[in-house]
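Subject: Re: docking follow-up (fe (ii) ion)

Dear J.,

Thanks for your patience while I sorted out the input files. As discussed at Tuesday's group meeting, I've set up the holo structure prediction with fe (ii) ion included as the bound ligand rather than trying to dock it afterwards. The sequence and the ligand SMILES I used are pasted below, so you can double-check that they match what you have on your end before we go further.
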Amino acid sequence: MLNMEEWGDKYLIGIEQLDEHHKHLYDLLRESYDLLVLKNNNDGRIGKVLDSMSDYATYHISTEEDWMHDLKYPKQTEHTQEHLEFVHRVSEFSNNFKNGTEHLTLEIVTFLREWLVNHIMTLDKEFAAFISNEARFCEMTASKYH
Ligand SMILES: [Fe+2]
Ligand SMILES: [Fe+2]
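The structure tokens for the complex came back this morning:
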């Protein structure tokens, strides 16, 4: 694979804010992939992209979990568990790369991409479906009583 596949509408879950976050995370992965392919690590660029990735993943996840908390999402625990694993992996790769104990490879970046896409397409979509059901329920009750 010469380039990482571009972000596509098929990954949208229909919640604008979270979709923007997902695209941004995906783009950071593509950027690190490109830098690796080009063997361009001038001024530690790859390390910087990994840092942004790690910070942004934490930010996105806390936003998503706030939504779940506010909506009393019944599957939050299970979902949060996957988030924790992802953040852990990203920061582990990032730290090891910076310490020189791990050679960041295309396999690792590809692994993170697969993980992200898989998570979006399963657990995040499931959560989005829950939100739209809740919204429909609210509309139904609102029209019933007003
Ligand atoms: Fe998620
Ligand atoms: Fe997400």
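A couple of observations from a first look. DSSP finds four helices and no strands in the chain. The CA atoms of residues 16 and 136 lie 18 Å apart.

Let me know if you'd like me to rerun anything.

Best regards,
T.
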